[in-house]
Design brief:
With 466 residues, the chain is of the alpha/beta class. Helix content is 39%, strand content 10%. The chain has 19 helices and ten strands. The longest helix is centred in the last third of the chain and has 17 residues. It is globular and about 65 Å long.
Amino acid sequence: MKKSFILFLTLAMIVGLMAGCGTSASKESPAASTTPESTATPTPAPSASPIPENTVTGDPSAKDAFVIWGWNTDFENIQKVLDATYPDLAKRIVFVNAGGTDYYQDKIDEILQKPDDPLYPDMMLLEVDYVKKYVNSDYLTDISDLGITSADTSNMYNYNIQLGTDAGGKTRALFWQATPGSLQVRADLAKKYLGTDDPAQLQDKYFSSWDKITAAAKTVSEASGGKAKLLSGYSDTIRIFLNSARKVGWYDKNDTIQVDDLMLNYMDLAKTLYTDNTTYNTTQWGTDWAAQKDGDGVSTEAAVAYCGCPWYTYWCLTDTWKNNTILVQGPAQFYWGGTGIAATTGCSDKDMATKLMKAITCDKDFMIKINAQNGDYVNNKAAIQYLLDNKLGNSDKMYNGQSLIEFYSKSADKIDASTVTDVDQKTQSLFQTQVDAYAAGTKDKDAAIADFKASVHDLYSFLKVS
């Protein structure tokens, strides 16, 4: 159980990936909520800026202090609902904001070794891309030990249960947000360069397969003289390949590194888009990538579509997309981001942990209030049905009456997270590095795959190269 966790502790100075989560401290660099983790774009160079100090809200010296750790302001929205619904619980919470997803794991790993520290976490938030690292450790409590039953979790989407469950079948983290994926299309540019702003036509003619996406990328680039591209960069598509469609994880039961055939297809797609010059080859969350959300596609560069999910719509799309956003599914069901919450085994008050976890992740009425507070597509099918029945929860970004809640309700229950492992975050970054080399022509595919496996072994010595 401790194998992977101990290994991670030896990597404390490696900077984590940008989050693809539910919400974040910055609209252009989400830390995954709940979001807002993890992208599989190349790992950025470590910043020269100092690691931020933790921001602590509440009084950790109070006798009944209950400490919760996170990395951004996302939990503050949950606290607002708690303040209104369970004020006696809310006033005890001491929230530690670690100042960003890049620093969170290092800080939380350090404090977990100090059970006598006043800021030792009673509960902690966990992004999707590294949640398995912690649920497969000995640091989190099985929810059954908190009295949370399968009846309590019956309305949750199954893929979130998979993400919060360890290799032995014990569920240790639960989620308040579901994050089904989509491609988010700018209606004005779609009409101009693809000839339609009808969601069904866009999906069927331009986004339902990779061949159609490749052809549409050529159409947009040629029609605009390169001032508009279908996608800003080929790496925008990696989540569609990674999250739900893969058949195997990054290593097998014998700890041998493996690459799913779909990831080989992703390499070929990246190569084609790069060679055809039909994207701007930007890096997700980069300055150019972000600026292209607001280009006009005539005098300034613009991207027609971005990979997204519910939190992406309300956190990352700019005012240019207001009443101008069309959701299409693309070639596959997938998810992106999400934040779990878990009680530590050293939790000082497991009764309070139970009450908080039940309210935040299991209670239909509480989750309806979360949606009203911050727009989350919540991880509760009964709450989603209530929003649908009452025509609530839509985003003002949607074009021509399209319903965000209705759109995602058709796909969220079909997502599979069974291939997720405890090494995904950094492994995906290493893979993207090799994809970039292959796309640019500095390596052939075999060399890129061999170098990928070698780099994974170097990082995780228990994993073997076949």
